[in-house]
Design a protein that fits this description.
With 329 residues, the chain is of the alpha+beta class. The protein folds into three domains: 141 residues, Nucleotidyltransferase, domain 5 (2-Layer Sandwich), CATH 3.30.420.40; 89 residues, 2-Layer Sandwich (Nucleotidyltransferase, domain 5); 69 residues, ATPase, substrate binding domain, subdomain 4 (Actin, Chain A, domain 4), CATH 3.90.640. The protein is 39% helix and 28% strand. The protein contains ten helices and 18 strands. Helix 7 packs across helix 9.
């Protein structure tokens, strides 16, 4: 087997690896646990995520990417190396061609950092692709046609909103409000409203199980354990989906405002296409209950979620190499 084509969705919350012909072969949290004393990496991925908030002093579980950008270069490089090796195995005659996606508004310096880290992790060729374009390809949209498509990609660290036509981005914006901010909003709300301190994993649990961006037809609730800030003792309370809607109102409306601002800057012909075809949502963040309804209510445009929103960006990143090859021919 000669060179392999790999697409990597280098996300703030998780890393997905797509291999041509095999699909998405790996999906792990982008968390690295390392020992401060020896500077050795203890665990990467799911194993490290389980350590978040539960480690002794000398072991730290960190996320080397913050808001879609590399915040710790050496750790990112090791993490990439680990994921590439895990996905394709060791025996290889040629190094793989890798395409990596980055948020749409990153600077040249940030792009260069991702490129260097990927080369250092063992790539033969690196293509950097913008997230909304990868998301559109992965959602099954033919981006080469002269027709406007609007993509809203809500990840872990950034939300990318773009209008795409003829294989390129016409108008785009990237806001640093996404899945992680939903978790933070829940943590803050619990502290303010219930005097309860919870960790980020618990907050994520609440978001996945009962989080709402829009009022649900019937209320659902779950039990939450945390530390009472008044007594300092563990305590369990019941939280309802209405409360999560209140907690998430602020970050959700920031994303809706960004969608609005992109629509305002869209050329009229493309705006007409979008009104016709609707808005497509991708990324794990759009799985929050009621996001479609919220955007639809605020913009008046039909909104739908891509078939597999979590993997759309990774699939699109992998297919982008084929798209480029097609362009060269």
């Amino acid at each position: 087997m000669l060179g392999t084509d790999i697409g990597i969705d280098l996300g703030t919350a998780s890393v997905l690896v797509y291999i041509k012909g095999k699909g998405v072969v790996l999906k792990e949290p982008s968390v690295v646990a390392f020992d401060r004393d020896t500077n050795k990496i203890k665990a990467i991925g799911e194993e490290a995520r389980l350590m978040l908030g539960r480690t002794p002093g000398n072991i730290v579980a960190v996320r080397p990417l913050r808001q879609g950008v590399i915040s710790d270069y050496t750790v990112t490089e090791k993490m990439l190396k680990y994921f590439i090796t895990k996905a394709i195995g060791k025996q290889r005659f040629r190094k793989p061609r890798v395409s990596v996606c980055v948020p749409s508004q990153v600077t040249e310096v940030e792009k260069k950092a991702v490129e260097d880290a990927t080369y250092a992790a063992g790539a033969r060729e690196v293509a950097i692709i913008e997230e909304p374009i990868a998301a559109a390809i992965g959602a099954g949209i033919d981006i080469s046609k002269p027709c406007g498509n609007m993509i809203v990609d809500i990840g872990g660290g950034t939300s990318d909103i773009a209008v795409i036509s003829l294989g390129g981005t016409v108008v785009s914006t990237s806001v640093k409000v996404a899945g992680d901010d939903f978790d933070d909003a829940i943590v803050r709300y619990m502290r303010k409203k219930h005097n309860l301190l919870i960790g980020e994993r618990t907050a994520e649990d609440i978001k996945i199980k009962i989080g709402s961006a829009y009022r649900r037809p019937e209320s659902i609730s779950m039990e939450v354990r945390g530390r009472n800030l008044v007594t300092g003792l563990p305590r369990t309370i019941t939280v309802t989906s209405e409360e999560t809607e209140e907690a998430l109102r602020e970050p959700c409306s920031q994303i809706v405002e960004a969608v609005h601002s992109v629509l305002e800057r869209t050329p009229p012909e493309l705006a007409a296409d979008i009104a016709d075809r609707g808005i497509v949502l991708t990324g794990g963040g759009c799985l929050l209950y009621g996001f479609e309804q919220l955007i639809e209510e605020k913009t008046g445009i039909t909104t739908m979620t891509a078939e597999d929103p979590m993997t759309a960006v990774a699939i699109g990143t992998g297919k982008y190499i084929e798209f480029l090859a097609g362009k060269r021919d």
